[in-house]
Design goal:
This protein has 318 residues and is mainly alpha-helical. Helix content is 75%, strand content 0%. It contains 14 helices and no strands. It is globular.
Length: 318
């Protein structure tokens, strides 16, 4: 049994560069997921798509875990693994897929982006994390940008009360899953926590097996390949790099970086799908990025403390 304790504040320079790289990997891959979901979602229903994605992710993660011979996390990690697996890997993926079929893309983006705010509040309440002024300011700016992006994209589809509720459930389960996962990372490596969380989510989605098999028989190859891509990269790889970064910073600060996703989605849709964004959409994307930049900076006091060798947990950046 192999466990990896959370790193100390006195990390090596090499280790200091790994966390930002992990964050960037996660954000880019999660942004690319929105493009793939469009294709896969046309052929697969919400539950079947979630199960297919999780199966691909579990197989990938399981193979890597066996090659690295990491084994099981310690017993203390399992409550967090099971809870985050059910909430984030299971419930979140199903209700998000379902909700996006009930509301237009802009409305879904606005509602789901409540998640990072909930994450910061839950982290402060349940994990004792701080709420620095720069983090709150940055998240406010980014959320305003997400609203602008959402408004610019709204009006091209239908919305329903059910869809809005489903997106709210997605935001809550996303935030709750992340906050629950963080303590588990003290008792297992990011790969272990992600692998077994993904397996728990897969098990929870097994009731959709019959639907997945039926829809896979009629789905075009492009949709199935996009579903597999979602499992291998935005799930297996991105969730592992997320866990790596989460073990090294606060849930609130890391959650704020996900506000870069809407801006990247706009850019990828333009480059890959030929969807030229409106000026309002571009402005909203820039606001998202500006908010992320604000939330990732330190106050002068924190910088002076860091220079002296002791950096407070709420001031750390990954």
């Amino acid at each position: 049994m192999t466990t990896t304790p959370a790193p100390s504040a006195a990390s090596s320079p090499l280790r200091d560069w790994r966390a930002p790289a992990a964050v960037c990997t996660t954000v880019i891959l999660w942004a690319s997921a929105f493009v793939s979901i469009r294709s896969a979602g046309e052929a697969y229903s919400p539950g079947a798509l979630a199960l297919g994605r999780l199966l691909a992710g579990s197989l990938t993660l399981g193979a890597i875990l066996l090659v690295r011979r990491e084994g099981l996390p310690s017993r203390a990690a399992w409550p967090g693994v099971i809870a985050s697996g059910l909430l984030w890997f299971g419930l979140y993926m199903v209700v998000l897929n379902w909700g996006e079929q009930q509301v237009d893309a802009g409305t879904a983006a606005m509602i789901v982006n409540i998640g990072p705010i909930l994450m910061a509040l839950l982290g402060a309440r349940l994990l004792g994390e701080g709420l620095p002024r720069r983090l709150l300011t940055g998240m406010g700016v980014s959320f305003a940008g997400a609203v602008v992006v959402g408004l610019s994209m709204s009006g091209h589809g239908s919305s329903s009360v059910l869809g809005v509720l489903l997106c709210l459930v997605a935001a809550v389960s996303y935030a709750g899953g992340v906050v629950i996962q963080k303590p588990a990372l003290r008792h297992g490596s990011p790969l272990q926590i992600t692998t077994f969380g993904c397996l728990v989510g897969t098990a929870a989605c097994l009731p959709f097996t019959g639907v997945l098999v039926s829809e896979a028989a009629d789905a075009p190859l492009s949709a199935t390949l996009n579903m597999i891509y979602l499992g291998v990269f935005p799930t297996a790889l991105a969730f592992t790099t997320w866990a790596y970064a989460l073990a090294r910073t606060t849930a609130g600060r890391l959650g704020a970086t996900t506000y870069a996703v809407p801006a990247l989605v706009v850019l990828m849709s333009w480059l890959l799908l030929g969807e030229v964004p409106a000026l309002l959409t571009v402005a909203g994307g820039l606001l998202c990025l500006a908010g992320v930049a604000i939330s990732r900076t330190r106050s002068r006091a924190a910088s002076r403390t860091a220079a002296g060798g002791e950096e407070p947990a709420e001031a750390r950046v990954s």
